[in-house]
Design brief:
Elements lengths: L1 H21 L4 H5 L12 E2 L1 H4 L1 E8 L1 H22 L4 E6 L4 E6 L5 H12 L3 E9 L3 E8 L1 H24 L7 E5 L3 E7 L4 H9 L4 E6 L5 H5 L7 E9 L5 E15 L3 E8 L5 E7 L1 H13 L5 E5 L2 E4 L11 E8 L1 H12 L7 E9 L1 H30 L1 H23 L3 E2 L1 H30 L4 H33 L2 H34 L11
Parallel strand pairs: 1-18
Antiparallel strand pairs: 2-8, 2-17, 3-4, 4-6, 5-6, 7-8, 9-11, 9-14, 10-11, 12-13, 13-16, 14-15
Length: 534
């Protein structure tokens, strides 16, 4: 009897907790006085139920490889300088290679040795061609394995950066995952301001620092007459009437630093109340920025954002401390949005919006209504069938089934899981699976009764013999659902979540709760000698 008491107490506690965590998901309960004392957790609705936006983004990994190779060229230049070897004219090529000039061909052997020893596991020399004035032109490229590593790292970093940006909006359960072909899928359920989110997510915020080449004639540059290793860009200037104009500016192609080293970004205001963005670099970025500014004193450094130059201040002296600012004629909102994307992490490469779809709340509401209707119909058929076929035992199974559904919804709310349309399908499937275990038990009890066992002995034998089979079947289902959750996309993961919760809950209700109900019935004096209706 003491064993039965603690089992009853456990069932009551779990049932109460299930109800407590389920109720906040109902709007009427949240708005009532009862909602103030209930947990704040509620079921999050997915994109297909709540509405929102779906984006497919493409990462320009070629640009990431080019930037990484340019940075590697700077490292080679610095290392060669320490060895007394002069290298000039580092120029990225369109075929993912980098060319530069060795000013003294007699030091070719020393340079080859330095590259092999220090960078041999990362890159290789494609060619070394003699040129005039005792010079040699080198062409280098990443090894295929390292190039793939850089490309994969760019996509992974882009996913992390986009997730950090989305967190600024407080979107519940965004689904962000990698797809084939260097693509990223983004689903944002229930977003209230989708257009601004698209602008910020799609904004590459690809920040580069390049040196301005003021020696080039702008008139000739605009006609396409550019010296090797330079490029024509545009600098944004603000007019007196508040409009902006793009003016031509010539930059060195070599990127001396990128925004990947930024650790923080904030909005500030200058003396004329003009908004700007202040940057703080990581320790490695601070050292790199100090070296770059030290090597280019009295030159202009262009701050290039998404291919446009927003400012090009003159470097008066070496800048230590790891701080800089972008003073690019921003409005307050523009500066704030830029600070968000830079603080969340600058993307390692440009990201393009390849596909954009919006799901309206009305379509989501229609999906909810149809899903709930399907669940109620399925539930009703199961309940009626169990009562007709198993009579009293069917009522026990139906009570366990109701508790099973409560526990599923409570689990979705308590764990912050997202309910999707396939997730509702998973609940409907679980309704059938939940009584399947009871069917096995009841059929076993029937067999034992036919063999002449007493009611109590038949129940004991039925549960003990069927339990192992039920556990085996349900554990394999949970394992399969875990695989679906780990490797599936958003809708499949939604199905897997409800399947996992439903399977675990059904094992508890079918094996434990229904047994407690039978023991209560058997323990009642007026039924001690009664035959079991099963």
């Amino acid at each position: 009897m003491s064993s039965l008491r603690w089992r009853i107490a456990l069932v009551v506690v779990i049932a109460v907790l299930g109800i407590v965590y389920t109720l906040p998901s109902f709007q009427a309960v949240r708005d009532s006085s009862l909602g103030a004392v209930l947990p704040e957790d509620e079921i999050n609705l997915g994109l297909d139920l709540r509405g929102g936006i779906h984006l497919t983004l493409g990462v320009d990994v070629d640009k990431a490889v080019e930037n990484s190779l340019s940075q590697m060229g700077q490292d080679i230049k610095d290392q060669a300088k320490e060895d007394g070897i002069a290298l000039v004219r580092f120029t990225p090529q369109k075929d993912d290679t980098l060319s530069f000039l060795l000013t003294d061909a007699s030091k070719k052997g020393a340079l080859d040795t330095a590259i092999t020893e220090r960078f041999g596991k990362i890159l290789q020399v494609v060619s070394a061609t003699p040129e005039a004035d005792n010079r040699m032109r080198y062409v280098i490229e990443f090894l295929p394995t390292y190039r793939r590593y850089v490309a994969d790292l760019a996509v992974d970093q882009a996913i992390k950066t986009i997730r950090n940006r989305i967190d600024q909006f407080g979107v519940a359960e965004p689904d962000i995952r990698r797809q084939e072909g260097n693509r990223i899928q983004v689903q944002l359920p229930g977003l209230q301001d989708p257009q601004r989110a698209i602008e910020i997510i799609g904004k590459t915020a690809h920040l580069e620092f390049k040196i301005v080449n003021d020696k080039v004639d702008l008139a000739k540059a605009q006609k396409g007459l550019l010296p090797p290793g330079t490029e024509l860009s545009a600098i944004v200037t603000r007019n007196l009437d508040g409009t902006t104009t793009d003016r031509p500016i010539v930059l060195d192609k070599d990127t001396v630093m990128t925004g990947e080293y930024i650790s923080d970004a904030n909005v500030g205001f200058d003396q004329s109340n003009q908004a700007y963005v202040s940057l703080t670099f990581s320790p490695r970025g601070a050292r790199l920025f100090e070296r770059v500014t030290g090597d280019n004193v009295k030159k202009r450094m262009a701050i290039v954002l998404d291919g446009k130059v927003y400012s090009a201040p003159v470097i008066q002296e070496k800048i230590a401390g790891g701080r800089a600012s972008i003073t690019g004629h921003f409005t307050t909102e523009e500066a704030r949005d830029l600070a968000i994307v830079l603080r969340a992490g600058a993307l390692p490469a440009p990201v393009n919006v390849l596909e954009q779809r919006s799901v309206g709340p009305s379509l989501g509401q229609e999906s909810i209504e149809k899903g709930v209707y399907s669940a109620l119909v399925g539930f009703s058929f199961v309940v009626i069938f169990m009562v007709i076929y198993y009579r009293f035992a069917g009522i026990v199974a139906d009570v366990a089934l109701i508790l099973n559904i409560i526990l599923i919804t409570a689990g979705l709310a308590a764990f912050g899981a997202t309910l999707t349309l396939p997730g509702i399908a998973g609940i409907i499937l679980t309704i059938g699976m939940a009584v399947d275990a009871n069917v096995l038990i009841f059929e076993r009890i029937r067999e034992e009764v036919r063999r002449g066992l007493t009611t109590r002995a038949a129940v004991q034998e039925g549960y003990s013999r069927a339990t192992l089979t039920i556990l085996d079947a349900n554990i394999t289902t949970v394992i399969a659902a875990l695989v679906l959750y780990e490797y599936g996309t958003g809708p499949i993961r939604g199905f897997a979540v409800t399947l996992i919760l439903g399977t675990i809950a059904s094992m508890f209700t079918a094996i434990f709760v229904s047994r407690v109900l039978f023991d209560i019935w058997l323990g009642m004096k007026q039924h001690k000698s009664s035959a079991l209706s099963v």
